[in-house]
Amino acid sequence: MDTTLLIIDDESRLRQLLAQILKLEGYQVLEAENVRSALQVLQRQEVHVVISDVKLPDGRGIELTATIKQLYPATEVIVLTAYGTISDGVTAIKNGAFDYITKGDDNDRIIPLVSRASEKALLQFRVQQLENQVSKKYGFDQIIGSSSALRQSIELAKKVAPTETTVLITGETGTGKEVFAQAIHYGSSRRQGPFVAINCGALSKDILESELFGHRAGAFTGAAKDQKGLFAEANKGTIFLDEIGEMPLDLQAKLLRVLETHEFLRVGDTKPTKVDVRVIAATNRSLQEEADQHHFRLDLYYRLSVFTVQLPALRDRITDIPELALFFARQNARKLGKRYVEVSPAFLTQLQQHPWRGNIRELKNVIERAVILAPVQGDTIQLLPDALPVDIQQHHPVDNGDLSLAALERRHIERVLQLSANNKPDAARKLGISLATLYRKIDEYGF
Length: 447
What we know:
Radius of gyration: 30 Å
Number of helices: 19
Structural class: alpha/beta
Distance between the termini: 62 Å
């Protein structure tokens, strides 16, 4: 990566001379004569190091430093002045300047100083790029689907993500609760911290307590050394507690203490450990009902459900099924070394008629199986209905009770309207009839 510099100075002769010197060192150099033009340059182009005079026609380089560091944290700023003062130097450093030097010293110091600032800036830009890649991989943009039910959940999650609020994600098994938890984490100021996930229903009480809070050596048989728990591992980040409804009651009390005091006791320890962790919990149960039956602490439920995000079941977002199916199909085709996937309309119709009790997780498994069984032509996998499991192929939405032509037509139109999310022009196109005919049928059948 080439280093781009920006020199800000209203004295054109000095600015151009410094620019020429730095260009000879191999840097790409941009110029600006005041604060306004400098900010315009920074908006248009990625700049690694800024060299700014203190006195500018429309501001001071010291205040500009604070603005640059706020808007472009990875960019380093070197402040130059003709008459340096200790006060200005201290303020410049406090505002984030890499260094503050007088112009009389620049002949000896400026090139090595720019070199060091450049190395630091390039490293910070690389780190920033990696963080952006991770955020893109796990962020909200990677949640597939455009149905209104899903978009509502995403909008709620986006609103709570930048806050420190505890979040409870609810929904059936397989609806993507961990995907949402990751998106909330990477949409927060904690994105640079760890994201730690644990399934509370997968471990016994004693093991779960040790995993969450850690233990001291000798706390129990087999505890040969100190162990750091997941809450400590998640410090400055987020811990995701999946299936929180499965957590034993006595551990719920310890979790409540963490939420209220930000400290916990390791197993076998007497001194509390402080921790800075955001908690996101998830459940496929109604914790309110569990609390009413004394299976879940009511005070913990209130503490966890400060902000709740409900995820829709896949059957409530059937318009998203084709996009999800194609995504999973391409993903599995690449694993088999194939570049293309062709999906027949009949294949998608069968998918959209299935109830999907296992939601997205079930769909993902079905598509993986179908890609393996599907015929291959050259570099293309062809997904046809016969690659689907028998129960999906045999499923049919029509009730066999009334087989009259009118009843079958009514059910078919109703189904197409559902598949089109009640978009009547789209439904008319799928049915192969005019929009006027569709409206007449809707009135006739009393939809």
